[in-house]
Amino acid sequence: MLRTRSCLIFALYLSSNFAAVAADAPPFEPAQAKAWFAEAKQQCQKDGGKLWGASLCGPIMLVEPSTRRMIANQADAQGLLKAEQGVFTGRLPDDVSFANSSLEWAGVRWAQMGWPLPADAGQRRVLMAHESFHRIQPQLGMEPLGEQANDQLDTLQGRYLMQLEWRALARAVAAGPDKARRAHAEDALLFRAERYRQFPAAARSERALERNEGLAEYTGIAIGAVSPAERIVLTGDDLVSHVSAPSFARSFAYATGPGYGLLLDRYLPAWRQTIRTPDTGLSDLLAGALGANTGNATEAEVQRRAAAYDGPALLAAEQAREQRHQQDVARYKALLVDGPRLVLPLRKPKVMFNPSTLMPLGEAGTVYPTIKVLSDWGSIEVSEAALMAPDWKHLYVAVPGKQAARTGTIVGPGWTLKLNDGWRTDAGERPGDLLLSPANQGAH
C-alpha cells in the first residue's frame, strides 16, 4: 500500500474518498491541531536549520477537505482567520486550491496539509517536514521550474528498470558493510544509466521531479525520523511501497529522493549545497562520489546484474501488466482522443489530483483518472478520467450522452462542471465536440 504522506501529495480529496477514513479521524478541533503544531515546531527546532541552512519552522494550515474549514498555527496577514484556543480558525475559500503542498494565501506562504494528519507518528512527522520544505523552496533558490512528463515510466522497459533501481537502492540503504553498500548503489546507477540509454530525454525529466518531490521527501525523512535507524526504515519503506502505484510517472521520486539522499549523506556530505545548482541530479552526484562509471555497460551486464534482484520474475510480471495496460490505453484513447469531447481552455489553472494514478498517452497528453480544476470559467471535478494536454492549455472530458445544458451546472460521464456567469458551451471544431467559451463570444 502507498504511504499516506506520499500518495496524498497534490492528491485530489474527493468527499467519497475521504468518507472512508472519516469514521476513524480525530475530531476537527483546535486542541488536536495545537498538539500537531507543537510536534512540528519541536522537530524543526531540533534541526535548527542545519539541514538546508534555513529553518523549516513557519506557517502551517490544516484543511478539512469535505468542508474546507481550516486551523492554522498563526494569523494571516489580512485578518481573515480568528484566534481560538491558541490557534487560528477559518475557512479556505472555494477558489483557492487545496493539496498537501505549499501555497500563498492571505499574504502568507503556508505549508498546507489535509485533516487528519497520519495517525502513525513517523509518517506524520515526515509529512509535516516534507510540506515545510516545499514552503521554503523559494527561499533556498530551489523553486521548481516546471515538471515534464515521464512517459517512459509507463512503458514496459521504463517500469522494469525503475523497479530494479528501487530494489538496488533499498539494499544499498540497508547494507551494513561498506563494500556491499557501494556495490548495490552502483547497481542502482547502472539500471538508471540503462534507462537513460533507452530513453535519452528521461535524464532531464526525471531530474526535475527528483529536485522537487524527491528532495522534499528526503527532507521529510531526514528531519522527521527520530534516529538514523528510523531514517533507514522509512527510506526502505518508500522504496518498496510505491511498487503498487498504478503509474510511476509522477510518483517515482518519492522513493528515489530519500534513497539517493541518504547515500549522499554518507559519501558526499556537502551535497545539499551542490544540488542547488540548476540541472544537477542526485544520481549524478552519487556516481561522482563513488567514482562509478556505469554509462558504458553492455546489455548483457545489465541483465546479469538484474538477476541478482530477481529480474526475470519482475520482467515476466511487467510483461503481463503491459498487456492489461495497452487495453486501458486503447480505452482511454477511444474515449478522450478519438471520441466526442468537451474542450476546456485553461488559463493559470489551479489543479488538484492524485500523482499515483496518471497515465501518459504520448503526444495526446496524460490521463488523470481523478482531478479537480479551477479556472476562470469555474470548476470541474472528475471521478472517471480527463485528458490533460501536454502544454496544460486544455483539458478534455467525454461529452454527455444526451444534450448538455449550455450554462450553470453541467453533469457528464464521471464529471461535474460548475460554470461561472459569462461562460457557456458551444459547438467545437470537430463534429460532436463541445467547447467552453465566453458567452459574449458567440456561437461557433
Task: Report what the structure shows.
The structure is a single chain. Helix 5 runs antiparallel to helix 8 (228-241). The strands form three sheets. A seven-stranded mixed sheet has the order 9-10-13-14-7-18-17, covered by helices on one side. The protein has a six-stranded mixed sheet with strand order 3-4-2-1-6-5. The protein has a five-stranded antiparallel sheet with strand order 8-11-12-16-15, with no helix packed on it. It has helices spanning 4-7, 15-22, 30-47, 121-140, 156-174, 178-198, 202-224, 228-241, 253-267, 271-274, 282-290, 299-307, 311-338; strands at 60-63, 69-72, 82-84, 87-91, 101-105, 108-114, 341-345, 350-353, 359-360, 366-368, 371-375, 378-382, 386-388, 394-398, 409-412, 415-419, 423-427, 434-438. A hairpin with a 2-residue loop joins strand 11 and strand 12. By secondary structure, the chain is α+β, with helices and mostly antiparallel strands. The radius of gyration is 23 Å and the shape is globular. Residues 1-22 have low confidence and may be disordered. It folds into three domains: 4-140, no CATH class; 151-309, no CATH class; 339-441, no CATH class.
Strand content: 15-25%
The major β-sheet equals: 7 strands, mixed
* Overall form: globular
Share of helix, binned: 40-55%
How are the strands ordered across the major sheet? 9-10-13-14-7-18-17
